[in-house]
Amino acid sequence: MRKRKLVKGLLAVLCVLSLAVTGCSKGNNAVNNTPAGTNSQSGTDSSTTPVSGEIDHSKTLTLEVYDVAANYQGMQSGWFAKVIKDKFNLELNIIAPQASGNGEALYQTRTAAGKLGDIILLDNSPLQDCIKAGLIADISSDVQNSTNLNQYYDQYKTYNAGLEGNSEGKIYGMPCQITNTSPTTYSDTEVYISPMLPWDYYTEIGSPEMKNLEDLLDVLQKIQTAHPANDAGDANYAFSLWPDWDKGGTQITMETATQLTKMYGYEVNGSIMLGNNGDIKEVIDDDGAYYKMLKFFFDANQRGLVDPDSGTQNWDTACTKMKNKQVLLFWYSWQRGFWNTPDRANERNAYIYTPVEDMNFYQPSDSYYGDGRAFALGAHMEGNDRARAIEFLDWLISPEGLQFIHDGIPDWSYTKGEDGKYTLTEDGLYGLMENRTVPDEWGGGGFDDGNSKINQWPLHSVSINPNTKEPYNSNYWSSYLEANKTTMTKEWSEKYGAANQVALLESTGQLKPVPNVNIILPSDTTDVALIRSQCASLICDTSWRMVFAGSEEEFQSMWTEMKTMLEGLDWKQLVDFDKAKFQKVIEARQAAVK
After folding, report:
1. What is the DSSP letter of 511?
2. DSSP assignment letter at 262
3. 392 SS3 class
4. Over the stretch 112-155, which tens digit does the pLDDT of each residue have?
5. How many C-beta atoms lie closer than 10 Å to residue 113's C-beta?
6. CA-CA distance, 461 to 483, in Å (whole number)?
């Protein structure tokens, strides 16, 4: 594992959040002008909560989890459901805005009713709104009196200090994906967003050097021509996209294109893009990274490289194709989990980073203070029910809970050696990608089907597990690293003269991680929210049509017409609002490296 120093000073200034997406679209915003803490419910103190030894587990309790990260809506089932039922006599009913069909309407309906959820997972801005509206409980005492949550009290306190009107320093939200590393560390050996190709296919065509996106398309076209179908005869495409993640929260763009802007030094945030050099651009700049990615997809489609189902299929369908090696380009680091194993890497049949010379990666450091979302407790939760919800959240961030959500089922997903360290089993390697059936003692059913549908981690997997002194992420276990010294990785290292992707990018000057700050930014005003919604509909619709445009002239005409129409939707007001909002992020990052 590699650690990267960015400089001292991040601790005090910052607060907490990587504004980047981890794979799911951002949540929804609402506006309420009630000052934080003025509603009696929002100040509910845990003095009404029984101490741990007095919690009554005799009756099954169903907790409603309102979760902007979830891709599934309904009752948690399978092996994870059995774990929490056996341990706590709990059931989880997942309320998922992005799987509901109309996330904004769901949010508005539930907030208007005064009960968003028992456990709530929101992005920063709507969390601030819900605190003002009295929907979120003060959990300061709960955190301080808990065994595991209390270990991260200082990080939670730093995050909550950024809440508007929270002069008393109360704890309302527990930021997601904090780490137990440090605020100046970048622990991963890969960046989150980068081009990854099947090593067997890439080397088969001679491993050509790629200077730019056009060269990448040439390579993908050669691979798709040589391998038009997988071993089962299903059609292969370089790209298989999905629209589910579009228009989430403050995001107003086509999300798959939005994510790929990070390969060219920018992160999209609403109407603007933050650069890794501290600059801000409008998302509709003609020379901007978002336009560049739309053109990339358009050019790919002109070559027949885009799955024709892309505009209509959902995330689950796209995932199935990734698991079947029907998608030739992976771009998010976790996508490799749908296919890669040491056995396949030894056969050279796995995905790995393939360099493109002109890329300049946008990569935040470890999310020590969180990633832009937070867990919270509904203000209506009191007494024994409240105690049980806190007990569950405390367990979720305990080593035992984290091992379940990061590593799977003990003795089935992994085994423990005499040295106390873990080794993945064959089921651990293939359980997710093949949805392998788990033993009846763990509830049966498919492993992926039974995975935690909360789909968000309270502690990031790069964090160190005190039980093993190694990260929770199995990719960094000593046993996995040893097993993963495969034919593919050896060939890759020999070819590029580097131990891993991050080492290579540092040597070429293509990676300079930005400080990972987590600050709670202002929510949209009513006027801005309306403008944003209208602009999102126009931009997302136009972006998808541009990808599938019949000619370059039509592609450019759509872009030009969209920009003209945006002017009539008060685009400038939205841009000015977002620039002012994210200038705070720029300033926080600058302060972090002084």
Report:
1. B
2. G
3. helix
4. 999 999 999 999 889 999 999 999 999 999 999 999 999 999 99
5. 9
6. 20
The CA–CA distances, whole Å, from 177 to 22, 476, 531, 579 equal: 10, 17, 31, 26
As a whole number, the mean pLDDT across the chain is 89
pLDDT tens-digit series, residues 197-239: 999 999 999 999 999 999 999 999 999 999 999 999 999 999 9
Q: Is the pLDDT of residue 422 over 90?
A: yes
Q: One-letter amino acid identity for 18?
A: S
Residue spans per domain, the chain: 16-185+367-475, 193-362+485-594
Are 16-185+367-475 and 193-362+485-594 in the same CATH fold? yes
Quote the tokens at residue 203.
């080397």
In the DSSP assignment, the letter for residue 123 is E
| Alpha-carbon span 148 to 465, nearest angstrom | 13
* Packed helices 289-302 and 213-226: angle between N→C axes, nearest 10 degrees: 30
Nearest to 362 by CA among 18, 15, 8: 18
Residue 18: C-alpha distances to residues 22, 267, 473 (Å) = 10, 11, 19
The DSSP element (H or E) to which 375 belongs, if any, is strand 373-377
pLDDT at residue number 10: 34
Where do we find the tokens 């819900």? 130
* Residue closest to 66 by CA, chosen among 34, 33, 17, 114: 114
- How far CA 541 is from CA of 247, 252, 254, 583, in Å, comes to 10, 10, 8, 28
pLDDT in tens, 349-379: 999 999 999 999 999 999 999 988 999 999 9
Q: In what order do the strands lie in the sheet with 330-332?
A: 330-332, 193-198, 351-353
CATH number for 16-185+367-475: choose from 1.20.1070.10, 3.30.565.10, 3.40.50.1370, 3.40.190.10.
3.40.190.10
Helices then strands, counting H and E runs in the chain, come out as 22, 16
Amino acid present at 587: E
Render pLDDT for 527-559 as a digit per residue (tens, 0 to 9).
999 999 999 999 999 999 999 999 999 999 999
Instruction: List the structure tokens of 377.
Output: 């407790």
Q: How far apart are CA 19 and CA 24, in angstroms?
A: 12
Q: Over pLDDT 90: what percentage of the chain?
A: 76
SS (H, E, C) 460-475: CCCCEECCCCEECCHH
pLDDT in tens, 507-520: 999 998 888 888 88
**Stated pTM of the model:** 0.70
Gap between the Cα atoms of 210 and 213, Å rounded: 8
> What's the fold here for domain 193-362+485-594?
D-Maltodextrin-Binding Protein; domain 2 (3.40.190)
Q: Are 30 and 125 in contact (CB under 8 A)?
A: no
